[in-house]
Structures are given as C-alpha cells and as structure tokens.
Design a protein that fits this description.
It is a single chain. The protein is an alpha/beta fold and 219 residues long. The chain is built from seven helices and eleven strands. It starts with a strand and ends with a strand.
C-alpha cells in the first residue's frame, strides 16, 4: 500500500501543466500527500482555468481525510493563504520515518544559486517563458526550453550535491523537486531522488510504501 504520495512542480496557472494527469495521481489510494513545492506557478488568478480550480478543490476534499502537506518553494512565496483554504500544512521541509527508513523531503530551490542569487535574471526569463507559452500551442518547444535551461546551469547536479552534503548523513532517502528531472541516485551514505514534474509530456511522481521502499513512477 502507498503510505505517502509525493508530487512536485505542478505549476498551476500555466498552460504546460498536465492537469488531467495530476488529477489521475491524486485519485490513487494513499495515506499522506506531500506536494514538494511549486504547486502554484503564480498568483495571477486570471491565468487559472477550470482544471486548476478542480485540482485545488480535490486537494481541499483530500485534506478532510488525509494528511496533506505543501513544502515551501520558490514559486510558493505567497502560498500561506491558499494553502490554508485548501487544508494543506505549509512547511519548509517534511521528514518522516517509515519502517525504520528516514525520508527527508525538501523542494531544493534553496540550493539553486540562480533563483537565490539572481532573482532579477530569473524574473526576466520567467516573463519570456510565459510569453513563449502563448504562441506554442503544442507546448513542446516550451517544455524543451525549460529542460535545457535547467541542464545548462547544472541545477540538477548542484541541488543533489548540496542537498546530500547538508542532510545525507542523517537520513536514508532525500527527495527533491525543482529541477523537473526525475531521477534516483544511490550514493554512499544515502539515496537521492527527484520526483520530476507535471509539466513535461512524461510526468512523474514518487510512491513510498508501508515497508519503507519507494518507486519513481511515470505516466
């Protein structure tokens, strides 16, 4: 049975978000839902469509029978109000021990020097990214740009290295988001995994089971 479901980087409010797949995963059977950052992309609610609000409504309904956690991230700066309305606990990180295996869940943006040290540059290119979305009906070009930008600045490697340096000694499994690169790395002192995103053609998430094992899943 799925003990904890971990999703990240849904980016509600954008046209690249694969909202039907988000709803499909939310309908699975599990005990705890951890949204590891970037549930929201922005707070311009005119960008939100019916599917965006349907996801928030689903999360609100889940919060009445499940433990639902939203891990703080670079796109969730103003999430306190919406997280309260949707019944989510807003936290900086989420740590849990399942069958003697320690999991530490953090979005990972704090280890990305581009978002922390160059906010104006990040803001500028985010604006261009939104502008391109308007003319890219298939979203293939937009998604490719996002993945290439993350690869160019080596964010996936930097985040893994810094995350492991800080928390690897005290935990068995580290789970991150932010990079949109789903992966699992078995290292000397821990296992690092990234749940990917719901903004690519192939979406991904993590299932943690009652025996402490976990799987990176795709759909």
């Amino acid at each position: 049975m799925i003990n904890t479901l971990v999703i990240s980087d849904v980016h509600l409010g954008t046209s690249v978000s694969q909202k039907e797949k988000v709803l499909q995963v939310l309908n699975l059977e599990y005990g705890t839902l951890v949204i590891n950052g970037d549930l929201f992309d922005n707070y311009s609610f005119q960008r939100y469509d019916k599917k965006d609000w349907k996801i928030l409504s689903k999360i609100r309904k889940l919060s009445k029978s499940h433990h639902v956690v939203l891990v703080y991230s670079n796109h969730d700066e103003d999430a306190e109000f919406l997280s309260a309305i949707a019944g989510m606990d807003l936290v900086d990180h989420y740590a849990v021990e399942i069958n003697n295996i320690k999991f530490y869940i953090e979005h990972g943006h704090q280890y990305d020097r581009w978002t922390s040290e160059r906010p104006l540059v990040t803001w500028f290119f985010t604006g261009i990214y939104y502008w391109i979305q308007k003319f890219d009906a298939s979203h293939r070009f937009t998604r490719k740009i996002k993945r290439l930008s993350k690869s160019w600045i080596r964010s996936k490697d930097t985040i893994c290295e810094k995350f492991v340096q800080k928390h690897g000694h005290a935990n068995d499994v580290l789970l991150a988001g932010h990079t949109h690169y789903p992966e699992v790395r078995v290292l000397a002192n821990c296992t690092y995994a990234n749940s990917g995103s719901f903004c690519d053609e192939l979406c991904s998430y993590v299932e943690i089971y009652d025996d402490g094992q976990f799987q990176l899943k795709y759909l």
